[in-house]
Amino acid sequence: MAKGGFSGGYGRGGGFGGGGGINMNMIKQAQKMQEDMLKAQSDIEAQEFSASAGGGMVTATVTGKREVVRIEVDEDAVIDASSPEDVEMLSDAIVAAVNEALRKAETAMSDNMSKITGGLGLGF
Question: In this model, does residue 18 exceed pLDDT 60?
Answer without folding.
Answer: no
